[in-house]
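pasting for the record
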Amino acid sequence: MTDKTVLVLGGTGKTGRRLVSRLQERGAHVRAASRSGQVRFDWDDRNTWEPALQGADAAYLVDMQDKPGAWDAETNIRELAKFAVESKVRRLVLLQARVTEPVGGKSLIAGEEAVKASGAEWTVLRPNWFNQNFDEGVLLDGVKDGELRLPAGDGLEPFVDAGDVAAVAAVALLDDGHAGETYELSGPRAIGLGEAADAISAAIGRTVRYVHVDHKDYVDELVQYEVPADYALFVADLVAQIRDNKNAVPTDTVRRVLGREPRDFADFVADAAARGAWNV
């Protein structure tokens, strides 16, 4: 048990809400912050930063990658990390992505470097694509429509479960021995989008197909759905990481940190199907 106070940005998001539960199980005092939550935090409104950070021992930082039109959060991450240290926050855990080269013309590493230079104890989490992108994220509509259209080619991805990411984050926030670490987090095996679609099809009893589309065509499709062009390019470049097998090799980080194997994609699919996540 612990008596630490932990600020969780994105407290209603994929990893955030799971992290809140894990921290509470260990007795931490949790501030689950979001733009519209009881604890309000808005990257675009710095008046919300001080009340959220005040008295916190540690903070879980999630940038704005899922906010079209404002996803380049490098400056805000740098300023927030500085503000957190000035507010006596001792430990920062930053959620990024398992990407080390520019996507959409922007570098994600710059945000990491800002946290590392802040003077706080830091841990960086770089997960692969989440399992939960299929049932509560960017791929949900495609699954329900029966067609996943992505520029991923025949590339492989060791999809990681958001619950495993949250579990690692909780350990990094509450326990010693993780400062100065960059953790690349993956599932236990790499699969292609076709195999993922087949697994979901078998679980829900209707066909879901994976269709490869050209990178430029995918960007154009997103723009047609009123996604800002720069954000559409950012998403397409992230998917291209799968196509090019940039992060196809699974890591052993979840096992090393948690002492157990990461959740397999098949287990995620069975659970999501049983919950009716893909009912139409």
